[in-house]
Amino acid sequence: MAYDYSRFLRNEKLPHIWCPGCTYGIVLKSFIRAIDSLGWDKNDIVVTSGIGCCSRLPGYVDFNTLHTTHGRSIAFATGVKIANPKLKVIALGGDGDMTAIGGNHFIHACRRNIDITVLVFNNNIYGMTGAQYSPTTPKGAWATTAPYGMPENNFDIVNLAIGSGASFVARSTAYHATHCEKMIKEALLHKGLSVVEIINACPTGFGRKNKFKSPTSMLLWMKDKAVQKAKAEKMSPEELSDKFVIGVLHKEEKPEFIESYDATVGLNKGE
Which residues fall within 8 angstroms of residue 37, CB to CB, at 6 or more apart? Predict the structure, then answer.
C-alpha cells in the first residue's frame, strides 16, 4: 500500500515550484515520514523558513508555518519556542540562508542550545537567485559569481555546528532517503539544539555549472562520496580525503536554554 503523504500536505498549494531533478521533494517526503513516525499532533508543530528554494517547503506542509525574511528562520523559531516551549519547533534553510546572512543566528542558537531542530538543505549554491556561490560552495567549483572557480575556502556545516555548541549534529543526503528520515527523527527527539545537514542537488544551478550530466549523476555522486560513520571510523585520512561522513556525528546531553533561562528568571525573582 502506497504511503499517503497528502495527510500532511496543503494539497491546494501543489504542484510545487522546485525545478525538475531538484532533490528537495525527496527530503520533504523523508521529513513527513519522520514526523508521522513520532505520532505528533500537527497543531503542536511549527516550521519556520527564510528565503530560498528549500524555504518554500513550509508552504506545502499542513503544520503551523512561518515563511520569514532572509536568514531569519532560526530567529523566528527562537521567538516561537521561548513564547511556547511546549511546541515542536523546526527551522529550515539552505546553505546560504543558514550560514551566510543567517550565520550569526545559526552559531548563537547552537551556543544557547535551545530546543529547536535545524535542517540545513546544502546544495552548495544560491539556487533560487541565480546560482551565485555560497559559503559551502567547494573551493574550485564554478558559479555565476565564480566564473573562474571558487577562490574561497568553504564552511563545513557539521564542524561549524559542533564548534558552536550544538548538542546533536548529523549529516545525511537526499540519495539516502531512509537514512535521512532516521537522522531527522533522531534530531526531533533530541532535547537541545539539533542540526541535520542534508546534502542536496541543484541540477539547474550547481549541476549545470559543474558539468554534472544529469540530476541522476548528482544523486550517484552522493552515493559514491558518502560514507557511513561506522565505516569511516575504520578508514584512513587518505581514504576519506574526497569523501564525507554521514550519520550522527555528535551527541551530548547538556543544559537546554529555556530551562536555564527560566531558572535564572526564577532566581532573580527570589523564587
Answer: 181, 185
